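Morning F.,

Quick status update on the modeling queue. The single chain you submitted on Monday has been processed. Sequence for confirmation:
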Amino acid sequence: VHTMNWVLILLGVKYSLQGAEKIPTDRPYLLVCNHRSAFDPMVTVATFKKWQLCFVCKPEIFKVPIFGAAMKRAGFFPIDRDNPRNAVTAIKHAAHVITEQGRSVGIYPEGTRTTGEEDMLPFHAGSFKIAKMADCPVVVASVRVTNGPLYPRRVELNVLDVMEEDFVRENNTAALAQRAQTAIREDLGI
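Structure tokens below.
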């Protein structure tokens, strides 16, 4: 986490968090947000540092010099989106991190980042199996990015909603994905 903070400081990337009062402080959770830039995981972990957040991410990210090593040290772990069997293993591992390690886990249900300000890809409902397996709340946040010439200059995170455990238990993953994506779309005005 410290390496990520230093990288963001050196690059001059500013970030902020709104709605932090909604985040559970007594139990770990699954964080879901839209995905706008390659810097989103670093910014999110730096912003959520007191909640010991780690992320599920694509395997290629670990090959990026400096960033990959920093993310691995922060507890990030890969999901193979092209292999359903390996994806299930990553989902089970994420649930284990929440239940056994007491750490919160973040995931981008779109599966990849979007480039247009008015774009958002459909959420993969399978992402929400993590919360169902871990019997944990789902924290929904939006990500807004102000781009610079090479990388984001500002990233704003806004916590919009918390789906408590009862709601997670009573609804299927498609309903959880729909509620999360609707909240983010409304906040972003798309």
